[in-house]
Specification:
Blueprint lengths: L4 E5 L5 E6 L6 E3 L3 E2 L4 E2 L4 E2 L4 E2 L4 E2 L4 E2 L4 E2 L4 E2 L4 E2 L4 E2 L4 E2 L4 E2 L4 E2 L4 E2 L4 E2 L4 E2 L11
Parallel strand pairs: 3-6, 4-7, 5-8, 6-9, 7-10, 8-11, 9-12, 10-13, 11-14, 12-15, 13-16, 14-17, 15-18, 16-19
Antiparallel strand pairs: 1-2, 2-3
Keywords: Acyltransferase, Lipid A biosynthesis, Lipid biosynthesis, Lipid metabolism, Transferase
InterPro entries: Hexapep, LpxD, Trimer_LpxA-like_sf
Protein name: Transferase
């Protein structure tokens, strides 16, 4: 039986240990909290101190950086990037190749389309169609 973890060296030369998540085999860094019911697909990374709630789906190749908080039922499409300290409200949907900036906040139930960029520190809320609401 193969090992259930992978060691990866970061840009600073530090070695980080990632375990393979039981649902999807994505890589979860030591210190990240991922609910057992969440799905983290192969090729996805969840960095230290990130928190992922129940029912979340993190797609193939997505990256959830350190200190990000992902609410219950969130859908993160393949190759999306959630920046450090970002917060995604419950039941939001994040599109393919979308980038959520550092410390950005996406409101509960928001729909962020494919290939979008939410800037660092930006706060965004949308309706069910993805139309932005006034802040």
């Amino acid at each position: 039986m193969g090992k259930n973890y992978v060691d990866i060296e970061n840009d600073s030369g530090e070695t980080l240990r990632y375990r393979k998540h039981a649902n999807g085999r994505g890589l979860i860094a030591h210190g990240a909290k991922v609910h057992p019911s969440a799905i983290v697909e192969t090729g996805a990374y969840v960095e230290p101190r990130a928190q992922i709630a129940a029912g979340v789906h993190v797609g193939h190749g997505a990256w959830v950086e350190a200190d990000a908080v992902i609410g219950a039922g969130v859908q993160i499409a393949p190759h999306a990037h959630i920046g450090p300290g970002a917060a995604i409200g419950a039941n939001a949907k994040i599109g393919v190749r979308t980038h959520i900036g550092d410390h950005a906040m996406v409101a509960v139930g928001s729909l962020i389309g494919d290939d979008e960029t939410i800037g660092d520190g930006e706060r965004i809320a949308t309706d069910r169609r993805g139309l932005r609401l006034a802040a």
